[in-house]
Amino acid sequence: MRRGRAMGSGDAGLGRSLRAARREAGLSQRQLAERAGMSLAALRDLEQGRTRRPQPASAEGLIAGLGLTGARAAALRLAAADESPARPAAPDPAPAAPEAAEPARVAVLGPLTVHRGARPVALGSRRQRLLLGRLALAGGAAVPLPELVDLLWDTEPPSAPAHAVQTYVSRLRAGLGPGGSGPAISWTPAGYRLHLGEDRLDLAGFRHRVEQARTASPAGALDLLERALSMWRGHPLADVPQLRHHPLVTAVAQERVTAALRFADLAEAAGQPGRSLPVLRDLAAAEPLHEPLHARLITALAGSDLQAAALAAYAEIRHRLVEDLGVEPGPHLRDAHRRALRREAAAPGGVHPGAPVVPAQLPPDVPGFAGRAAELAELDRIAATGTAGQPTAAIIVAICGTAGVGKTALAVRWAHRVRDRYPDGQVYLNLRGYDPDEPMTTADALRRLLRAVGVPGAEVPADVDEGAARLRSQVADRRMLLVLDNAASAEHVRPLLPGTASCTVLVTSRDQLAGLVAVHGAHRIDLGLLTVVEAGALLRRLVGARAEAEPAAAVTVAQLCARLPLALRVAAELVVSRPAATLDQLAAELGDQHRRLALLDAGGDPRGSVAAAFSWSLRHLPPPAADLFGLLALHPGADVDVYAAAALAGVPVPQARRTLWLLVRGHLLQGTAGERFAMHDLLRAYALGLGGDAAGHAARTRLFEHSTAAAAAAMDVLFPADRRHRPHVPPAATTPPLPDRETARAWLEAELPGLVATVRYAAGHGWPAHAVVLARTLYRYLVGGAAAEALVVHGAARDAAGLLGDGPGIGHAELGLGTAQQQLGRLAAAAGHFARARAAFEVAGDATGVGRARFGLGGVEQRLHRYEPATAHYRAALTIARRHGDDAGVGRTLINLGMAGYQLGDYAAAAAHQREAIAVHRRIGDRAGEATSLTDLGIIEARLGRPDAAAELHARSLALFLEVGDRHGEAWARNGLGEAAAAAGRTADALAHHTAALDTAVRAGVREQQARAHAGLGRAHRADGDPGRAREHFARALALYDDLGVPEAAQLRRDLAATTG
After folding, report:
1. pLDDT band per the 50, 70, 90 thresholds, residue 53
2. Model confidence over 170-196: pLDDT tens digits?
3. What DSSP state is assigned to residue 239?
4. Residues 742 and 714 sit within 8 Å (Cβ to Cβ)
5. What is d(CA 634, CA 823) in angstroms, rounded to the nearest whole number?
6. Using CA atoms, how far apart are residues 846 and 808, in angstroms rounded to an integer?
7. What is the rounded (10 degree) CA torsion for 625, 512, 515, 383?
């Protein structure tokens, strides 16, 4: 395939190229959609040719997700560049650009304004202002598209929100002009970014001057901070009310306060306290309860010989604190008041005689920190609003997650960002809850904390309760931040908690700390794995240009490291330590699952070893939980339910459930919706190394027996009439309750990926009989719209049956392969499978199997419009089914025999066959067979000029198909409804039914019904007076029918020619 050309050579070529690239990358559609940041439906539209070209945003996401480089990436970008942007529902005018040659300047430190030179630029609507404001707040970071959609449309978003956002962005670009080397706003896979330097965005300029002041001399810092603070014109984005309480606005406002506090201290130290008064007065009015700010104001007033004003300011802030919060002023305010009364100057550095000890114990910030923007914003939000929500309680935040996920890094990063908000100190304590050393005792932790906050060693109580009380007294009303790292449990930290709202506590743990949340009102942040974009950013920061030069390999390394920060850092060290090696070579080494954890051992340092980090979590578990953890990795699928876990462990289901949630609590498993449980790849690799071969073999045998028994139970509920065609499977104690069709269908849908993986694994690793039985059990379910999965299942089963010398097993697998290929429109391949099935059954003397194979051969002939040979196969199949009492086979064959007669023009006989089939299916309880007969009878009624009767039959058919979860049949019935509506002149209904049919057929991968839906849409648009849309759908239908190699293509050519002419 010429992929570079295909990427830009039309709908079908682009779709085929994307599909080929996805398969080369070993990704499912869902996995690629998640990597690319787009919906699954949008990706399917691209691959199936329903969408002509991707949007630029989608193209960049696909390039990153697939790891495309060079010509293939350029071709996809070129295809996206040809797309004309869709208009939002209510387009705005582009911002005026009166001085196009001069770049725009954006100001957000007050009301939002944009200027070119001296002239203001009109920003248009509320949404354009909101979009610009949010991008400006990001500080050059990308803002994810879903966040922008939620922000711009607080109620109902437009039908194509990504297109609408793109249009707003395009209009803003026009008003802002270039952003340096490219546009001011650009797209990345992580979202949209605003590129404006310090000279064009006041927030960037403010931050640049504040950063310069950190390393400047005191006099230089004083000037820089004065210039930085002079840029402020009021509350950030004061005229964009939707952002007023956004966490980033709160954080930016806090940056101003932090800079003002330092400015005031420098002015006081320089003997120029009055220099800070304008800034302090403005901010004190905006922050009426901010004690450090008001303390600086009181000190500046007193230092400027304005003692009465200083005392009045203290009286005012004290009144507000008592009335609003019910607390007395803290030590800084009291000290400022005392000095104002005594006319004392502040001591150098802001340290006053007798003032409390101010600890500053935070460890160094983590180098190369990347991602976690949402979590940092959530911490800002909690810190900004937590006190208001709990006016008398300390703010407690529990950061929980698995080993190596970056809990400490996040806590330390945020603590450094906000340390100026806690002028009375920042305390850090590693509790060693999950460590190679013994966990720190509560008594030892209390002693360390008390000494850190100024209690002399001789005064530290020995009793834990007394120590906890002394700690609460010591930090009462002090603005302090406590970081309690690596806690083993809620009980580990409970005595260490402050008692007043002036303190904030960050706790990190691998435990969920449910007790802190339930009893103390803690806010929990569950820290997951990095996104692909964040993992890539971390690698680039740690490795540098080598990651930029090999983007595809960088994505692969990130995935092999499970996007776990600890693993990524160890992998980056490997890259740095091997200057001659490439990322691609490292990816190849990490691809060996047996070597992966050995490579990620950080040179034997237990604190940097991924495996060691996991082992410390495991040692906290009781033995049954540790045993189950090792067994769960034996499941071939990506996740398990509680029943499969019980089978693996050989324990009762209630015991397995309790143990699974214990593992979730310790962040060794992820619990998902519907009580499904999963572990990331590195944990799986670690768990696989824990068990013995004998125990593993026995556990897998129990699992495969459970899977087969549960699948058989579900199939008996959904398809009772086909029971005789399925092998007998003894029941299992771990089979889930499946009381009705809906429950059975939901179980099969949830388990299907794991069942497919089970068949494939069992076939190739010593359980071939289990593979054959499970494949035969699933046959009828897979027929209902899971053709891709059927190819994998029956292909593996054929290989397994060959190993066993199981002739009937080979025949059944070939039947399954033929049915799947027929559904996918590959008729030649299908005919080959059915012929081989017939031969296998004839050798084995299985007459019923021969009848089913001939039924399949008849279906291929019928699709090729060769109705006489099709009828011959059907009559032979019908004779065999009746002779052997195969009522389900009789019903199915009557359906197809009737449709062959219909296509030969014998409508009366065709209808009679369908009615007989309906009676058979009802008698044996075959709901799917009855639904097929009903919709085929509807087609006959429509041909006889009775569209209303046809519509009623199709509607009854659709209800049955939905009941059994047959998406193939659902698409068939919806197309029938569309054709009946068109015949009755109800064009709008026809459009709706065919559109729904197309969506269902795409999801089911049934190309024939996709083509039929496009043809129906073409006819409906033609009847509605829209020849352009009609041609578009006729062309897509023709492309599909041509690709399927079926005679319907000839009629579509005539329809297309007539519409074009």
Report:
1. low
2. 788 877 877 655 678 887 767 788 888
3. T
4. no
5. 33
6. 7
7. 170
